[in-house]
Give the backbone structure.
Amino acid sequence: MTNRQFSGSPMKTDFIPLPNSFFTQVMPKIQDIAELKVALYVCYLIQQKQGRPYFVTYKELLSQELIAAMDEEILRRALKSAVDHGALLHSTLNINGKGEDVYFINRESSRKQAEKGEMKHNIFALYEQNIGIITPMIAEELKEAEEFYPPQWIDEAFKEAVMVNKRNWKYIARILERWASEGKDSGEYRRSIKKGGPDKYIKGKYGHLVQR
């Protein structure tokens, strides 16, 4: 690790918005530097997602170099303090059948989501867990796919990609496109395909996903 002094941000750079209440109500309560680092880094990671889900899992935090360098006991204590002081919200969500610790920025919309305690078939969560950070371009493709394909297809396409160690969205999208154009080995969704007919997947708003 270098000790060279930070030379300053470039003229064109992204900024992470924080509410005024963070500085006026939360920061005065924070006395520990680890807590401040964790709270700010959770805000940073959520803003980087450019879309849903509006939370960070504990596993995601551990995958970050800055956070991974911390002792896990210190990390747990810092997260608890950040929650106690109101900087973050904590919940255990059911993400695709598995309970996971997740952290939100403390705001009204996040409180409602945290209280639900369930996040099934969330394509953004699947991408974060199996591939990595979501870029703005990928976020748009994920939104389209989530609207277009059945949730079970999305779950199974990710599982298939992980099994063959093809952890990239292009490979997963091709699986979904193939199932949409050729049909999938599932009675439930064969009926859906027959009902809409093949043109359901070729024409309309998301036809480019199948045709490309």
The longest strand covers residues 88-95. Residues 98 and 130 are 14 Å apart (CA to CA).
